Each structure stands twice: as C-alpha cells, then as structure tokens.
C-alpha cells in the first residue's frame, strides 16, 4: 500500500457538496465570461516580437499571421475542440497614439485595422484577444494604457475585442491595485463582455507586495503569478511546483469567472517529449488553468495536434464547477493531485512523476484514502487520456497505476450507478 501523506482538502462527500455550492457564489468579476477556463491560441511563446516581415513574412507579428492561425484553428479541428480565442500579444501597435489619444495598430503589419481582424475572427466563430500594458509603455516599448484606461477600454469595445491581456511593465508598483481595478471597471463600463487577463499578481510578487487574491479574483477573469513559460520541462515543472505550494491560498479563489493561470501550453513546439506534453496538458486540466496554445498550427506534429484536441482531458479542464485541483499526497517521486468534478461525488486524480531517472513508478492506492470519497461507495474508474475503463471498484479496493518519469497518469472516478 502506498505511504500516503500530506493530506489536504475535505474528507467526506457532504463537505464537498457545500464546498462546491459555496464556490459557485463567491464574488468574481461580474462580466459573464470565462465561466470555465478560457481556451485559445496566443502568439508570444512561439512568435514573440518578430517584426522582420521583410525577411520572415509568414512568422512576423502581423494580421497575416493571426488570420493564418485562425484558419488552422477552424480547418484542423481546434475550434471544434473548444479553443475559441486568437490572442495578439505585444508589438502590434504603432509607436504613437492618434491625436485624439486612441491606440492604433502598426499600419504596415496590420493594414486592415484591428476591427477588420476581429470581424475576420467572428465570421469564423472565433474571438479576438489583444494585449495592453498597465504602465506608460508596454514591455517592448509601445504605448501603455496609463492615463488612458477609459479611452482604451472603449477602443477595444468598438473594435469588437473579446479578450485582453493586461501586462505590468513600466508602471509604479504602488499603483497596481488601483490601476488594475480601474481598468477592469473601464471594461465593464463599455457594456461589452471582454475576458480580462491580469498579470497583476506576477508583478506584485516580483516587487515584494502581498498578493491579495480575494481582490484580484473579484476584478480579473484570469491572473498569473509567475513569469513566462519556456520550451523546457523544467519551466513547466517549476510552474506546477509553485502552484502546489498554494501561496496566499491561491487555489481557493479559482471559480467560474476567475482562474489562476500558468502561461501557455508549450505543446507542439520544441524541447518536450510526447510524455512531457501529455503531462503539461493533464496537469493544466487538473489545475483548472486556461488552455492557450502557443505554437505554429500550420506545422505541428500529428501527436501534438491529437493531444491538444483530446476531448476527455479537455472535459476535466472545462468542468462547470471550476474547482482547481490541488496536491493531496506524495508517494516517493509521484505527487498526487485531485480535482472535484461533476457529477457530484466525482473526482479527477492525477499522478505526476517528477523522477528524472529509473523506470516507471508504481503506485498502489485505495479511493477510500482520498478526501471527499465515500468509503462505502463503489466507483467507475477510467483512464482519461485514452478513455480506457479500468473497472468498477469499491472504495476500499486497491488500484495499481504506473507512472513514467516526468509523466502523468490521469484517472477519473465517478460514483457507480446504484442497482
């Protein structure tokens, strides 16, 4: 039997019910969007601030790039799988505002304008995201939104924007709380439902401030605490390790309309094995994190494409309860995470092996050891990635799983129908 330890969470189904009920009514941003973790495609990790359209036309930051990604999302099944947003990041703007203070896109790289690009997305069933910065300049030196919150919010609404990422470069740290809240209010005042993605906790943490997740979750739909992710396993693992520590009790503030974020999915790029790609998607699903790809959808491995569209894993991420999974036990190198899902009394359980040598780690456990499990009940247990039914188990029965180094084994346990 596994040596379970470090238990966290509720220990019976009644407590789980009231936790879930309460979770649905805690205050979140009242804009009616992001009721499940947003899904889409974002440019930064793969394309960064590539301005060399003269020598790299297909990959520079331009309307051409975003249109091609949109076409791939529709044609290749990503939209059907749930990925809705196509999100522009930094470097889309002109270096100056118009005389009336309005932002404008770079005229050479976005000659049709942002409204036309939004229309292009909407005609295909997609939604357009864009990037702003809370300070005087963006991280790449383009105009920031400081002192233009109302103007910029109205501009986004007029353009038909559906999602905005608000960065925190070149700002006074003392202004973060006031300014991130103020811009969120400006967005709401437009009357357009726009997902508000704040990097507020990341910058507050960097400058040594207390991170008030209660306040952040009231004013932002998505919020990130760590810096950018990269194409390497260690980067992904470090994100998971930080979230596992649950600083500031951050997991308790995840709910419909307000989700923690750990940056983009690195799947389909360079540096990760197929097993490591599965691990990232599975852990992002269990942690109820937004699923934003950042890759070249025009040129992606078949295995990565199939993984990104795995409807069984996506269903765990998109569970309507919006509960963030947390670590509940440790078995040697395997951390065990649990996320409560519908129907009530059900759970998704991830076994993440952080070992970097040797063979697969075998874990033997009983569902009755898990918090929120009815020890007298029977459960239908399924491996999630391949949708393989493992059997019907009494809570007291043992289950054996094998987890590859740097890999994941993901199951879901649903109360079995009573006869």
Plain-language structure description:
The protein is α/β, with parallel strands linked by helices. It contains 13 helices and 16 strands. It has helices at residues 13-23, 44-47, 63-75, 78-81, 114-123, 149-159, 176-189, 200-206, 213-219, 233-244, 274-286, 302-308, 311-317; strands at residues 39-42, 85-87, 127-133, 163-167, 195-198, 222-224, 259-261, 291-293, 326-331, 334-341, 346-353, 361-366, 378-383, 388-394, 398-403, 408-415. The strands form three sheets. It has an eight-stranded parallel sheet. A six-stranded antiparallel sheet has the order 9-10-11-16-13-14. A two-stranded antiparallel sheet has the order 12-15. Strand 2, helix 5 (114-123) and strand 3 form a beta-alpha-beta unit. Helix 11 runs parallel beside helix 13. The chain is globular, with a radius of gyration of 22 Å. It starts with 12 loop residues before the first helix and ends with a strand.
Overall 3D form: globular
Number of strands: 16
Order of helices and strands: HEHHHEHEHEHEHHEHEHEHHEEEEEEEE
Quote the distance from N terminus to C terminus. 30 Å
Q: Report helical residue fraction.
A: 25-40%
- How many DSSP helices? 13
Mean pLDDT: 93
Spatial order of the strands forming the largest sheet: 7-6-5-4-3-2-1-8
Low-confidence region ranges: 1-25
The whole-angstrom Rg is 22 Å
Biggest beta-sheet profile = 8 strands, parallel
Structural class: alpha/beta
Percent of residues in beta strands? 15-25%
């Amino acid at each position: 039997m596994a040596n379970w330890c470090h238990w966290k969470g509720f220990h019976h189904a009644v407590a789980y019910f009231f936790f879930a009920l309460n979770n649905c009514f805690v205050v979140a941003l009242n804009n009616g969007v992001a009721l499940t973790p947003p899904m889409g495609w974002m440019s930064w990790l793969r394309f960064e601030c590539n301005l060399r359209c003269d020598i790299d036309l297909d990959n520079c930051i331009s309307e051409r790039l975003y249109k091609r990604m949109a076409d791939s999302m529709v044609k290749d099944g990503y939209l059907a799988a749930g990925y809705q947003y196509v999100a522009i990041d930094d470097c889309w703007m002109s270096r100056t505002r118009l005389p009336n203070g309005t932002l404008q896109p770079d005229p050479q790289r976005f000659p049709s304008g942002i409204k036309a690009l939004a229309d292009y997305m909407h005609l295909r069933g997609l939604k357009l995201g864009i990037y702003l910065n809370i300070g005087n300049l963006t991280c790449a030196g383009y105009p920031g939104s400081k002192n233009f919150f109302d103007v910029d919010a109205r501009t986004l609404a007029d353009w038909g924007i559906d999602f905005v990422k608000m960065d925190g470069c070149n700002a006074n740290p003392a202004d973060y709380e006031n300014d991130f809240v103020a811009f969120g209010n400006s967005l709401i005042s437009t009357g357009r439902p726009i997902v508000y993605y704040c990097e507020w906790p990341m910058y507050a943490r960097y400058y040594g401030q207390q991170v008030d997740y209660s306040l952040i979750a009231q004013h932002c739909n998505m919020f990130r605490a760590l810096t950018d992710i990269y194409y390497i396993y260690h980067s992904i693992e470090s994100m998971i390790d930080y979230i596992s520590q649950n600083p500031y009790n951050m997991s308790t503030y995840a709910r419909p309309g307000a989700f923690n974020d750990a940056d983009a999915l690195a799947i389909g790029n360079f540096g990760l094995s197929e097993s490591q790609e599965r691990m990232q998607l599975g852990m992002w699903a269990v942690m109820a994190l937004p699923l934003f790809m950042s890759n070249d959808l025009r040129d992606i491995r078949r295995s990565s494409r199939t993984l990104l569209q795995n409807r069984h894993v996506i269903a765990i991420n998109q569970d309507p309860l919006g509960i963030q999974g947390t670590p509940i036990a440790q078995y040697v190198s395997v951390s065990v995470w649990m996320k409560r899902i519908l129907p009530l009394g059900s759970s998704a359980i991830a076994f993440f092996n952080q070992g970097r040598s040797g063979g697969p780690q075998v874990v033997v456990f009983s569902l009755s050891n898990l918090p929120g499990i009815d020890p007298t009940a029977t459960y239908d247990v399924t491996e999630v990635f391949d949708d393989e039914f493992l059997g019907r188990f009494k809570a007291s029965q043992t289950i054996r799983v094998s987890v590859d180094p740097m890999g994941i084994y993901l199951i879901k346990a649903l109360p079995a129908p009573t006869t």
